[in-house]
Amino acid sequence: MLPKDPQVHNNMGNFHDAQGDAQSALASYARAIVLKPDFSDAHMNQGIVALRMGKVQLAIRSLEQATASNPRLAKAWLVLGQAFMAEDRLREAAAAVDRALAIDGSSASALAARAIIAADRGEADATARFRRARAVNPDDRGLLLRTTAAQIADGDSSALDSLQAAVVATPDWIEGQRVLAKARFEAGEGVQALSVLENAIAAEPTNADLWMTLLHLEGAVRPATEMLDRVRAARKSLGERVTLDVAEAEFALRAGLPELATPLLSKARGFADMEAATALALGSVAARVAIRMRDPGQAAKILLAVRTELPVLRWNMGLWAHTETAWRMMGDSQHGWLINHPGLWATHELALPDPDRLADCLRGLHKRKAHPLDQSLRGGSQTEGTLFLRDDPAIAALKAAITQAVADHVAALPEPIEGHPTLDATRLRAQWRFAGSWSVRLSGAGFHVAHMHPEGWLSSALYVALPELDGEEGWLALGEPPEELAAGLTPLAMVRPKAGRLVLFPSWLWHGTRPFPAGERLTVAFDIAVDRAN
């Protein structure tokens, strides 16, 4: 017979949790709560484990009960705040973490959580909060990165000093190297932004992670022919590697020398035996080479092999973008199966409550001098962080209008089609969610190169402010492959920009913009994600 002491069951839950058996831990906490409904520790422990398992609603209910039973449980307030953060309920998150700090003002975890909330909401004291958090936990690299971002948002000219010192001291910190190089480039330093990374490679020439980071970032600012020389230099230090084959093929395509990349095609097989990241990189670039060499049939076979041999990549948007290109070049009937569905992409006219106030709000968030180092825009800037989390009435009104438009768009999608990357029946359409949101500000001659969004389900463009445009200046081109593929395909659709116009389309659909001669093109963009079943 099971004991009737709730503390025994709570302890058993802790034991199961320590052994990695989260489900049994939840069951034990539940038994403890049945025996003692106001058992705050059991409620708190249940909430902690539930949040770790991704059961956010259960976590919130448990932690609210824990704090109601014992308002002095600082840890319960903190984890409740983290649960609210997981649902983007940042006002409630801030209130919960403030309660935790009122009980224990020196908690490193609570100080860090509250600083992150402040930054995401756009609170004026975010930088000061990060500094307090770092004073308690100075070795937390994640806090250093977030502090730097907050300082940049404040326009602090010394924002990169601490980050650069840390990266120089620990040159094999890859994330630090990447963030530092990108931030220096967006501050207007050009190729000099990569100097710390180059120095790290000079000191550690056999560090493959440093080399691959350099090739990825430098490839966005230097001519492709120079990057081919960089790859050769990397080979001298690292030897033969598939990752270098992939990089060389990509730069060969950009340089208009696809024949240099054809040896890669013989390696594009046996994907089931590869790690997913390697298979994706190899398969994608091999397909790109085949398309450039005017062999879309081979490209389609390679892409199909990656998707079927590694089911985890079944819904990869990059693979589907290249598949669409190959099928269209071939005149394959599957292209119609993929594309010919009314409502797959559409425009929605939004009545923005106060467009001038919104435009001014967005302009105030564009702090960078140059476009991001590894993004699609040229001649402009992109905001940091998640736009829709900001605690601003103009942003809140915008998000509400967009939410309704997305709901209408999703509801109007065609009936489910098995295996379709957008319309597949396994997708839980009703549970869509925002997955990233940002603003882009392009100035004279600015544009987006053709690209797709690998992490989304649906992607978007919302026009907020526009200059006078003639002809197709500034228009959005849907379905036009990247220039380096030389696929010879025209756009599937051209969309005229108009203030208040929202365009929604599949994330796998190539999209880019035509340049415009002068003025400001201010937009908001976001991705929509859904749960995928492999």
Task: Give your account of this protein's structure.
- This protein has 534 residues and is of the alpha+beta class.
- The protein folds into 3 domains: 148 residues, Alpha Horseshoe (Serine Threonine Protein Phosphatase 5, Tetratricopeptide repeat); 179 residues, Tetratricopeptide repeat domain (Serine Threonine Protein Phosphatase 5, Tetratricopeptide repeat, Alpha Horseshoe); 184 residues, q2cbj1_9rhob like domain (Jelly Rolls, Sandwich).
- The protein is 51% helix and 11% strand.
- The strands form 2 sheets. Strands 1-7-4-9-3-2 form a 6-stranded antiparallel beta sheet. Strands 6-5-8 form a 3-stranded antiparallel beta sheet, with no helix packed on it.
- The protein is globular, with a radius of gyration of 25 Å.
- 44% of the residues are buried.
- The model has no long low-confidence stretch (mean pLDDT 93).
Short summary:
The chain is built from 21 helices and nine strands. The chain has about 525 residues and is of the alpha+beta class.
Average pLDDT, all residues: 93
The CATH architecture designation of the largest domain is: Sandwich
Low-confidence stretches: none
Number of helices: 21
Please provide the count of β strands: 9
Shape: globular
N- to C-terminal distance: 43 Å
Helix content: 40-55%
Within the CATH hierarchy, at the fold level, what is the topology of the largest domain?
A: Jelly Rolls
Q: Largest sheet at a glance?
A: 6 strands, antiparallel
The strands making up the biggest β-sheet line up spatially as 1-7-4-9-3-2
Full CATH superfamily name of the largest domain? q2cbj1_9rhob like domain
